[in-house]
Write a structure and sequence with these properties.
It is a single chain. By secondary structure, this protein is α/β, with parallel strands linked by helices. It folds into 2 domains: about 140 residues, Toll/interleukin-1 receptor homology (TIR) domain (Rossmann fold); about 130 residues, Rossmann fold (3-Layer(aba) Sandwich), CATH 3.40.50. Strands 10-12-11-13-14-15 form a 6-stranded mixed sheet. The chain has a 5-stranded mixed sheet with strand order 6-5-7-8-9. The chain has a 4-stranded parallel sheet with strand order 1-2-3-4. The two termini are about 25 Å apart.
Length: about 400
């Protein structure tokens, strides 16, 4: 996937930062790093980027940008020249000023009225965030046109950047985003990341693309959430790169996984279910510390661990992983029904690929609370809450 070129006035860099975060949250690559949006580039770099490196020219039209001779005479003209030569190259404007004034200022620079381009307008009452999401949907529709019988590659990263030798169609490189708390809060999940995944899902469905090839280096919360958004019942098949193997959802396990699941009843007045997934290592102490500190009242707790005990070798292949995910999903639903559970709290130590598969099995489970473990403190912290029929 070629990146998007952002054309904007440096005076509007704060707004462009928000736009860039919105695009990148949905897997859309931009030509310039988010961290360096305030830094200018040379004339030759910009011309080469538009002509050779980018698939889309995004134009942020403001009172400041229309006054820029460089934007009008260099960036826009380069984009128009390429669009005449390459019909797959798109010009997508976001208009944040009077339409009449914008047309007047850009007369001779744009081809006709700006409204002829497929973009968005920030009318009175519409926020920059809402307009940015409109742009994201437009760009996703252009990007996701791969035939449905081929795998669509998505990269999901939260703590390191996507490797240069990985060329995904969508690059969900959330490590690049400029959120102050490093995307772990439920507020960022609800405000930024969940809408982004929903937009991706809608665009994939619209294009008839149902097979996802996932390359991921991410938190367990992100893995479970991704699997949940594209879970079994939605019809998507996720093929996960896991330690040079391919693990996939939608496939029934061939045999029991060797997972041991024990159920323990707790406080009758509670509607919370705790799920202890000690797959690669025991989390008993960290989970106990969290429950004691937060005084989390559980109606019941599921203890899930390999029959031979937790270890890094406990999930050797796809067959074992798919079996574990299937058994955990069934056990959670059974406990939910048995104890009238409303909230499920998932704590775990496991391979990321297994987290994705477990997420894909958590249909009809109510609110799902996800947590991340701070190993240095031996303590869990709340991450995201999955709620609703996404």
């Amino acid at each position: 996937m070629k990146p998007v070129f952002l054309s904007y006035s440096r005076k509007n860099v704060k707004a462009v930062q928000e736009i860039a975060d919105t695009l990148c949250a949905g897997g859309i690559r931009i030509w310039q790093d988010i961290e360096s949006l305030a830094i200018g580039n040379t004339d030759s770099q910009i011309r080469e980027a538009i002509q050779e490196e980018c698939a889309v020219f995004f134009l942020y039209i403001t009172d400041d940008s229309v006054e820029s001779e460089f934007i009008r005479e260099v960036e826009i003209k380069e984009a128009l020249n390429k669009s005449k030569r390459d019909k797959t190259f798109h010009i997508v404007p976001l208009i944040h000023m009077s339409m009449d004034k914008a047309n007047q200022k850009l007369q001779g620079s744009m081809l006709g009225d700006i409204s002829r381009y497929n973009g968005a307008i920030i009318h009175e009452g519409k926020t920059l965030s809402e307009a940015s999401r409109e742009i994201r949907k437009i760009l996703l529709k252009e990007i996701i046109k791969r035939p449905a019988d081929q795998d669509f590659m998505i990269s999901l990263m939260t703590y390191s950047r996507t490797q240069g030798n990985i060329q995904p169609q969508l690059d969900l490189d959330w490590s690049r985003l400029s959120f102050s708390d490093k995307i772990m809060s439920d507020t960022n999940w609800k405000t930024h990341l969940l809408p982004a995944l929903k937009d991706v899902k809608d665009a994939l469905l619209s294009a008839g693309v149902m097979k996802i090839r996932l390359f991921a280096k991410a938190t367990l919360s992100a893995g479970i959430a991704f699997g949940y958004i594209f879970r079994r019942e939605t019809g998507f098949k996720i093929i996960i790169n896991q330690r040079e193997q391919l693990w996939s959802s939608l496939e029934r396990p061939e045999k029991p996984s060797g997972l041991k699941i024990n159920e323990e009843s707790r406080n009758i007045g509670s509607t919370n279910l705790g799920v202890n997934l000690s797959i690669t290592s025991s989390i008993d102490n960290s989970l106990g510390n969290y429950i004691d500190k937060q005084q989390l009242s559980l109606r019941a707790e599921l203890f899930c661990e390999p029959a031979e005990g937790p270890s890094r070798e406990s999930v050797p292949n796809h067959n074992v992983a798919s079996g574990m995910a299937w058994e955990i999903g069934n056990a959670v639903r059974d406990a939910k029904s048995k104890y009238n559970i409303t909230d499920i709290h998932i704590f775990g130590a496991m391979p990321l690929g297994l987290a994705v598969l477990i997420g894909s099995e958590l249909n009809a489970c109510g609110r799902i609370h996800l947590y991340e473990n701070n190993k240095s403190e031996s303590m869990y912290y709340p991450s995201w809450i999955l709620a609703g029929d996404y």
